[in-house]
Specification:
By secondary structure, the protein is an all-alpha fold. It contains ten helices and two strands, in the order ααααααααββαα.
């Protein structure tokens, strides 16, 4: 049962009162988030080399980190953790993608999806290790600190899979609950944004559908292909639960996350519908 597993959640201190967190880690997080924002800005400039426009770069790394952290905080509370544990994870997940800024800026935004084994594909795959190394280097004198240990673990392992086929082939039983949670929130937020090689499943016309940014129309056979992507909240959750499932995710955690996100989604839809009805009547 998830409730029993949550009791074994690794306990640390409190980010908001811990001296190292406030004196050194908090400024480090601020610098790294600023670095991510600056890196995103550079991507918008460099993307023209790949034939794209700056406004077509929608999957930005700094906002992604913030959204993933918010989802992680909410999921922690959903599964019964307190505010302290939820906020500790919130700040740790803010750092999960900082390794991307240690890579060339021109490897991310390309119309064609990089082939497995290509130089760009391999480069992209190094970002978890680069992020963990950046944290280790900054806090080499405090590697046993509870926050640092878990932040390194999340940065390094957030692309692992429960069946052991992830980047570092770590068996699922060796992945901590915070890492399993990070894997879910990272994948969910990433799944909500179209990449240049994707087709918007909710907007594509019946014939000769185009990719996410109107370039290079695909033949109708791609309607059911892997390039077709539903980026709505229900669509992303369905893909995570049914297509990737237990091989990729901790299903008890994912079930809790799905329930939480669908509740938020339906509440927002209900509020939107009520406002639109009121607007029409007035």
């Amino acid at each position: 049962m998830l409730e029993d597993r949550v009791k074994n959640w690794p306990r640390g201190g409190d980010f908001h009162t811990d001296p190292l967190c406030q004196e050194r880690i908090s400024p480090f997080i601020t610098r790294e988030l600023r670095r991510l924002h600056e890196y995103d800005d550079k991507r918008k400039i460099v993307c023209v080399e790949s034939g794209m426009k700056p406004e077509e770069i929608t999957y930005l790394f700094a906002p992604h980190s913030a959204r993933a952290a918010h989802h992680a905080r909410d999921l922690c509370k959903r599964i019964g953790l307190g505010d302290i544990e939820a906020m500790n994870v919130y700040w740790q997940i803010m750092l999960h993608d900082i390794g991307k800024t240690r890579l060339p800026v021109n490897i991310w935004d390309r119309i064609e999806k990089p082939e497995p084994g290509s130089q760009i594909y391999i480069q992209r795959k190094t970002h978890p290790e680069l992020g963990a190394d950046a944290i280790r280097k900054e806090f080499s004198d405090n590697l046993d600190h509870w926050f640092i240990k878990q932040a390194i673990e999340i940065a390094l392992l957030h692309h692992e899979k429960m069946d052991g086929t992830g980047q570092f082939k770590i068996p699922g039983e060796e992945l901590s609950l915070p890492v399993r949670l990070a894997i879910i929130v990272d994948a969910f937020d990433g799944g909500q944004y179209l990449r240049p090689h994707h087709v918007d499943a909710n907007k594509a016309p019946a014939e000769g559908i185009a990719n996410a940014f109107g370039k290079k129309p695909y033949p109708p056979s791609h309607h059911l292909g892997e390039n077709r992507r539903d980026v709505s909240i229900p669509g992303v959750l369905q893909r995570m639960c049914n297509k990737k499932g237990a091989g990729h995710f901790d299903m008890e955690l994912l079930d809790a996350f799905e329930e939480m996100m669908l509740e938020q989604y339906h509440a927002k839809q209900k509020a939107t519908n009520a406002y639109e009805k009121w607007d029409l009547e007035n």
